[in-house]
Amino acid sequence: MAATQPFKYTVHVRGNGGILQGAPVSFTEEARVALFSPNPPPNLVRDLLATLATRHHDEIMGMQDWRCWKCSGHAVSMLHNPMSYLYKTDSPGVVDLVLPICRNRGACDAEGGQMFAQEMARMQIGGGL
After folding, report:
1. 73/115 Cα distance (integer angstroms)
2. Is residue 75 part of a domain?
3. Helix H segments across the chain?
4. Which residues contact 75 (CB under 8 A, 6 or more apart)?
5. Which stretches of 14-85 are DSSP H helices?
6. Can you give the pLDDT at residue 1?
7. Residues 98, 109: Cα–Cα separation, whole Å
8. Structural domain includes residue 77
9. In 3D, which of 9, 10, 19 has the Cα closest to residue 100?
10. Tally of CB atoms within 10 A around 95
11. Under a CB-based contact definition with an 8 Å cutoff, are residues 91 and 60 in contact?
12. Which pLDDT tens digit goes with each residue over 55-111?
């Protein structure tokens, strides 16, 4: 079995206007040591991020009556955007920006996906969040 290392998985649920809904939620997780490097295997990173979002999705949904990030309607699901910071030697972790959505594959879901894509593009060119 591959050696593992603990890290913090922190979830920030964002509401209308990007404002956080409640305090961030943190979980202690473990990942293969190979992921704690500046250039980890991309397939292992994708698998880890997908696993984390899936593992904690229902628990986060059950924490409160979430409101859709866009229209403020009752949220039925969440759109996850996990990002790995496992390469940080002082505080490795994964940060998941989450948008509650009122309908899967609806307009608010689609706009949330577009917003995440734009934010990620800005981050890649140095604009930050």
Report:
1. 19
2. yes
3. 42-61, 107-124
4. 61, 65, 66, 67, 68, 100, 101, 102
5. 42-61
6. 67
7. 11
8. yes
9. 19
10. 16
11. no
12. 999 999 999 999 999 999 999 999 999 999 999 989 999 999 999 999 999 999 999
How far is Cα of residue 24 from the mean position of the Cα atoms in its chain?
11
Question: Cα separation of 73 and 103, whole Å?
Answer: 9
The count of structural domains within the chain is 1
- pLDDT at position 50 over 70: yes
- Let me know if residue 44 belongs to a domain: yes
**Nearest of 29, 13, 10 to residue 21 by alpha carbon:** 13
84: tokens are: 């790995």
In which domain, by residue range, is 83 found?
4-124
If you ran DSSP here, which 8-state letter would residue 75 be given? Answer: P
**Does 129 map to a domain?**
no
Read off the tokens for 78: 């969440």
pTM: 0.88
The amino acid occupying position 41 is P
DSSP letter at 76 equals: -
